[in-house]
Design goal:
This protein is α+β, with helices and mostly antiparallel strands. A hairpin with a 2-residue loop joins strand 6 and strand 7. Helices cover 29% and strands 22% of the residues. It is globular, with a radius of gyration of 24 Å. The protein has 14 helices and 20 strands.
Length: 508
């Protein structure tokens, strides 16, 4: 039945593609020739945008595109360092509680207004819930940390913190928006990035246009960007094969379907931890022995071999890509089905059953759930898989914590606090409901510790707790596979989700 359904979809899409090519190419050999002549790239993504407002958006899949529309005071380099962006330099006070940013001159917003310190103050005040009519704090990472924002002059702004915070600077890549533009950002996003917003259709895609006044001279290289949403990966792969799109993330088992001469497959670690998130408030999972049994009953190497060969195995919510902070725990749980059975029996659940809720837009997570379902049968564990759409997952799992288990990828950040605080009991998006007083204290300590060596030890202990307490089943840092049109150059990858469109161009 699946084959027939796919064949029907294939025929339909081919007909639509052929008709579209006839109506729009007007004699061109294929849609790609027209695309190249127009200096345009079409990018395929698997999920819709959760918000166009940079201060409200939560999904990494949204950020990876909108980084091209919005720019922060800083931005990440390909090596994961913070480099100047809208701020050309900054100074930190001796007690690390005040940051003074010196803004670049001549930076413009997409609406034609000039960037000023007043825009920075507005942006951070809005994030903290200090704007009349917008009193709700939009990002706790700022609301809990920032005391006040002072405009020193038109191009200098000082951000004063409530107390010393070691990771504040790593959050300053969040987008700066024009003063008083907050209420309209969700429908008409305006930033200072290399591309400006043109239009958006929910579930379909977005169009962006080159911003001629972008502050980095000579960038971006292309005039137009079209973002197409392919919730069905098969449809996306078909579009790649027809060269209707020039750039899209794919999964390992679709590589063979991509025309080798037409595309280059770029591979790199995601700095993302794929995990089976266990709801620690679900009655059986309140028992540590059950959580440990779930770890012993899984064969991570099989999952990796089938879905992402070469991906590093993990046993905590941290990728080895972040080597400086990483605690190697990958051998803590080796597959031991008999030990899993023993722990389940001791805990009173010899025939454990539960449901995994997984977003259908991410085949690697759906496929992992299917493999885990089969692996767990060996230990007498019954798993039901419930596939939901991305928005339902965000609402029910991420925000509502309404699940027993889920499989998802938690993206890496530039600072370990932003990675590990997700498991602190006070974090609003701790959707696995992990609660450990020692862990909570470590996260608090890490926020204010300015000694780098001591901070490393704090976060390594936090990783050990996640593993020893079996907070979830941590699987791997998946390999990212991206199909890029072979006629293009300028591809760069980062340790955070960021499709950098500035440098992509067609070769001469």
């Amino acid at each position: 039945m699946k084959t027939n359904s796919f064949q029907s979809t294939l025929v339909f899409l081919l007909l639509v593609s052929a008709l579209s090519g006839f109506l729009t190419a007007c004699g061109a050999k294929n849609g790609q020739e027209a695309t190249t002549k127009a200096s345009k790239i079409v990018v395929g993504i698997p999920q819709d945008f959760d918000s166009l407002d940079p201060h409200i958006a939560q999904a990494s899949g949204t950020e990876e595109i909108m980084f091209n529309v919005f720019t922060g005071l800083t931005m990440p380099s390909t090596a994961g360092e913070l480099v100047p962006a809208l701020a050309e330099k900054w100074e930190i006070s001796a007690d690390s509680t005040a940051y003074t940013f010196y803004l670049r001159k001549g930076v413009k917003f997409h609406n034609g207004s000039n960037l000023s310190a007043a825009d920075v103050k507005y942006s951070y005040d809005r994030l903290c819930g200090k704007i009349p009519g917008e009193e709700k704090a939009l990002k706790s990472t700022f609301a809990n940390v920032v005391k006040e924002v002072e405009v020193l002059n038109d191009s200098t702004v000082k951000i004063v913190l409530k107390s010393r915070n070691a990771k504040f600077l790593s959050d300053t890549y969040i987008g700066i928006i024009p003063k008083d533009s907050g209420p309209s950002q969700a429908s008409n996003p305006v930033g200072t990035g290399p591309y400006k917003f043109v239009d958006y259709t929910a579930g379909v895609g977005m169009n962006l246009a080159k911003f001629a006044d972008y502050y980095e001279k000579g960038l971006p290289k292309l005039d137009q960007v079209e973002i197409k949403i392919f919730a069905d990966l098969n449809a996306g792969v078909l579009a790649l094969s027809n060269r209707e799109i020039q750039f899209m993330q794919i999964v390992y088992d679709t590589i063979a379907q991509i025309p080798k001469g037409d595309f280059v497959i770029e591979q790199y670690p995601m700095n993302t931890v794929q995990l089976m998130g266990i709801n620690n408030n679900f009655k059986p999972f309140q028992d540590k022995r059950i959580r440990q049994a779930l770890n012993y009953a899984i064969d991570k190497q099989q999952i990796i071999a089938m879905l992402a060969p070469g991906a590093p195995e993990v046993d905590s919510n941290f990728s080895p890509v972040m080597a400086y902070w990483y605690e190697d725990l990958k051998d803590y749980y080796s597959r031991d089905v008999e030990k899993a059975k023993k722990l389940l029996a001791e805990a009173g659940y010899p025939n454990l059953s539960f449901t995994i809720k997984v977003p259908g837009e991410y085949p690697i997570h759906v496929n992992a759930a299917q493999i885990i379902e089969q692996q767990y049968k060996d230990a007498g564990i019954t798993v039901k898989i419930q596939v939901v759409d991305w928005n339902t997952w965000l609402t029910e799992v991420y925000a509502g914590r309404n699940h027993e288990a889920t499989i998802i990828g938690l993206t890496g950040k530039l600072d370990p606090d932003n990675i590990l605080k997700r498991f602190s009991s006070g974090y609003s998006r701790n959707f696995i409901n992990f609660n450990n007083p020692r862990y909570d204290q470590l996260i608090k300590d890490g926020e204010v510790e300015s000694n780098a060596a001591k901070r490393v030890e704090i976060y390594k202990e936090a990783q050990r707790i996640l593993t020893e307490e079996a907070a979830s089943v941590f699987i791997m840092d998946p390999i990212n596979y991206v199909a890029v049109d072979a006629r293009m150059e300028g591809f760069k990858y980062y340790p955070i989700y960021f499709i950098d469109l500035r440098y992509l161009n067609y070769k001469n």
